[in-house]
Write a structure and sequence with these properties.
With about 750 residues, the protein is α+β, with helices and mostly antiparallel strands. The protein contains 21 helices and 16 strands. The protein has an eight-stranded antiparallel beta sheet. Strands 6-14-11-12 form a four-stranded antiparallel beta sheet, with no helix packed on it.
């Protein structure tokens, strides 16, 4: 017998009034909609919620599915109409007289407003019917209708659709404890397949992008190019759609007390406020489209990353002109990127200087960057002159847009914030200073026996640094080296290193290792050791450095660096150039600026070594000049180097001149918002494997008992609209809930 669902109500007071109204008006609200008009989304949504609370599941499904459909239709119409009217009503400000310039400008504004009204009314009906309240808009943005829909579908025994609706909600709301239980219990229902867990709102560009990267990692470059190019087109389309929807109504931040009062702003102040709001929304679109479903933050440098993958893929496909084009396009985003500049020089050697010079970066991407830079300059001007706050969000092409006065304010604010943790004469303190206040290192109370502190900060001539030994056993190192060899995704030696042309580079994340283990492509024991030991390191770092707040994983990789052609003589480059992990190192000024594109949210770094049978590859710390080496560490099995991620700890890796060097690289953050989402998925996979193992060990007897326990136990839904619906699917002891 299928388990029933029961609710957990926790927004009762907030929605008591709504429930009272629903009880007074038991039938769905009806309004007259002219033939040819689209039914209003908020009306359909409201009717769906009413039907839901009356246990009229069929009507609830009909209204909610239609509301979701019409919501998408309204957005598409608005996007198309804005695009159409943008093309038909261009600004022509070639009039020299200021009075007539104003008339010309507002004449275009009026024509554009008329165009939009005509277009939207023609396709949707009266515009006023399709203006959603902020609360309803937020519900659709947060996928709340799918939460209602999943229970209604479950109640009508449409299990596959119920699972897809539940998963669609859960992807964007992974912290919802009740839906976590729903998903967990859906997974153990008879006949449920992994393919049933679909994200119905998954952005197509992310699906194509992930497919392209997967093909790239297995060196299928021609196929990777096809997927990545299609993904890029979809990305730019979604980006433009997002920007089009920014041209919406003005969202005033006036208080409740001031509502209804006459505004004291004049015409140009009102226009400026509204336009800054629109520009800010447009700037945020890069982050919106760069955020994968289920992730709490955008993928850093997502748009430029297309051209990093594409330039190398085209190179491997021997399409050198396209590789040069993509390299030049990447440099539009990051003009000073040394690796890409070197790549471009390589393409120039293949194509010839004249032909390479004739290949421009992609025009549509150059326009995206130039448009973004212009908007940033306007927003910085508004912040500097009008006092309208603006914070840059994307991590590319951002420097140089702020006026000097704003930069001065930012530096002053940064100095004020840093003053409690750093000497005034240096943004991150000198080598012998301790910018970490009274925080002390504690090597006497490590949480794991057998782990010893080999070198502390004093021995390493710095602050917040440590080397530990005994973190791994020899057998664990062997298991992890085997995992790196079989699961790295690039063969034994990997692809060309992003840091030097003289080495090969391969990497595998914890989640990827576990997925490969489930597919029996790598040993499960090795993947489990990988997961376990990284958690061990997190606890060691927390304990040794006495962090006041918990640490979360920011990113984790098992990385192998291999000398490209056996032993290499007289190499002058490094395996990884000197850098800091959460700030931009400026060796000339001997400072480190904690600002994008650095990973500013990282707080601690750690490297756990697996072997020492190679030449070169020593880890080293330097001063802020990136030249003066303060300490060197020779890797070996089970040795851990850990340190704070800021400018107090610049570091690098010497060239690997022979053999293969493998280590687990880990970065940690105090920011829960910036924790690694893949890690959470990996934890869930581990938990799921334990649950499956326990279920198989317990056999059919417990399953029959659970069925008997839930059979005949009538459970009712209690709730209200703000309760956001279906709560835990339960196969355990049921609890009765009363209705309101």
């Amino acid at each position: 017998m299928m388990p029933l669902l029961y609710p957990y109500c926790h927004y009762l007071q907030y929605y008591a009034t709504l429930v009272f109204i629903l009880l007074l008006f038991p039938l769905p609200i009806a309004i007259t909609v002219k033939p040819g008009s689209l039914e209003p989304v908020d009306l359909l949504y409201n009717n769906g919620i009413q039907a839901y609370f009356q246990n009229d599941w069929e009507s609830a499904i009909e209204y909610l599915e239609k509301a979701l459909h019409n919501y998408d239709k309204v957005r598409k119409v608005k996007q198309d109409c804005r695009s159409k009217c943008e093309g038909e009503t261009q600004f022509h400000l070639n009039v020299t007289d200021g009075f007539f310039q104003d008339l010309s400008f507002f004449d275009t504004i009026l024509k554009k407003a008329d165009c939009l009204k005509f277009c939207e009314t023609l396709l949707l009906g009266p515009i006023s019917l399709h203006r959603l309240s902020r609360e309803v808009e937020n519900d659709f943005q947060e996928r709340v209708p799918y939460n209602y829909l999943q229970l209604a579908l479950f109640k009508t025994e449409r299990l596959t659709k119920a699972i897809a609706a539940a998963h669609t909600f859960f992807v964007l709301n992974p912290d919802d404890e009740d839906m976590k239980r729903n998903i967990k219990n859906y997974r153990i229902m008879p006949g449920v397949k992994a393919s049933d867990f679909q994200d119905l709102e998954a952005a197509s560009h992310w699906v194509l992008y992930n497919a392209g990267v997967s093909l790239y990692e297995v060196e299928k470059y021609e196929e990777a190019i096809q997927q990545l190019e299609m993904s890029l087109l979809e990305f730019l389309s979604e980006y433009e759609k997002c920007r089009a929807l920014c041209d919406g109504p003005y969202e005033s931040e006036e208080s409740e007390e001031s509502k209804g009062e006459e505004s004291s702003q004049d015409l140009y102040e009102v226009i400026a406020d509204h336009y800054v709001q629109i520009l800010t929304c447009r700037q945020n679109c890069i982050q919106t489209v760069s955020t994968e479903s289920g992730k709490s933050s955008p993928t850093e440098g997502f748009l430029p990353s297309y051209f990093n993958y594409l330039q190398f893929s085209y190179y491997m496909a021997k399409k050198y002109d396209k590789a040069a084009e993509c390299a030049k396009t990447y440099l539009v985003f990051f003009p000073s990127d040394e690796t890409m500049q070197q790549n471009l020089q390589s393409y120039e050697a293949l194509l010839g200087q004249e032909m390479t010079a004739s290949i421009p970066p992609r025009e549509n991407l150059r326009s995206v960057v130039e448009q973004s830079l212009m908007e940033k300059k306007m927003l910085h001007f508004a912040a500097d002159s009008l006092g309208i706050p603006f914070t840059e969000q994307d991590l590319w092409s951002s420097r140089g847009t702020a006026p000097q006065s704003t930069k001065v304010k930012q530096r002053v604010e940064k100095s004020r914030l840093m003053s409690s943790v750093a000497p005034k004469e240096n943004a991150f303190g000198k080598k012998d200073d301790n910018p970490w206040g009274d925080k002390q290192e504690d090597g006497d109370n490590l949480p794991f026996p057998g782990v010893t502190v080999t070198f502390d900060s004093a021995a390493l001539k710095g602050s917040q640094r440590v080397v530990m030994d005994g973190v791994l056993s020899d057998s664990e190192c062997t298991q992890l080296l085997e995992l790196a060899t079989t699961g790295g995704g690039e063969g034994h030696q990997g692809r060309r290193s992003p840091h030097t042309p003289n080495e090969r580079f391969s990497a595998i994340t914890v989640l990827k290792a576990l997925k490969l283990a489930l597919q029996q492509a790598v040993a499960w024991d090795g993947a489990l050791v990988y997961h376990t030991v990284t958690e061990k390191v997190r606890l060691l770092v927390e304990s040794y450095f006495n962090t006041q707040n918990p640490l979360y994983f920011s990113f984790t990789q098992l990385i192998c660096r291999t000398a490209a052609e056996g032993k290499q003589e007289n190499r002058s480059d490094l395996s990884h150039a000197v850098h800091a992990d959460n700030c931009i190192l400026d060796p000339e000024e001997k400072k480190c600026w904690r600002e994008p594109p650095a990973y500013v949210f990282r707080d601690y770094s750690a490297f756990l070594y697996l072997n020492d049978n190679y030449e070169g590859g020593d880890f080293f710390f330097t001063d802020l000049d990136a030249k003066t080496v303060t300490a060197e560490v020779r890797p070996k099995c089970g040795r851990l180097v850990a340190f704070s991620s800021g400018g107090e700890n610049p570091h690098g890796v010497q060239a690997v001149t022979s053999g293969q060097r493998c280590a687990i690289a880990m970065w940690f953050t105090h920011s829960e918002q910036n924790q690694e989402q893949e890690r959470l998925e990996a934890d869930e996979l581990i938990e799921k494997s334990k649950t499956s193992q326990e279920s198989s060990e317990m056999g059919d007897v417990k399953e029959d008992a659970a069925s008997k326990k839930t059979a005949g136990q009538g459970r009712r839904w209690s709730g209200n609209a703000k309760n956001k619906i279906p709560k835990a699917v339960s196969v355990d002891t049921p609890k009765e809930k009363d209705e309101l």
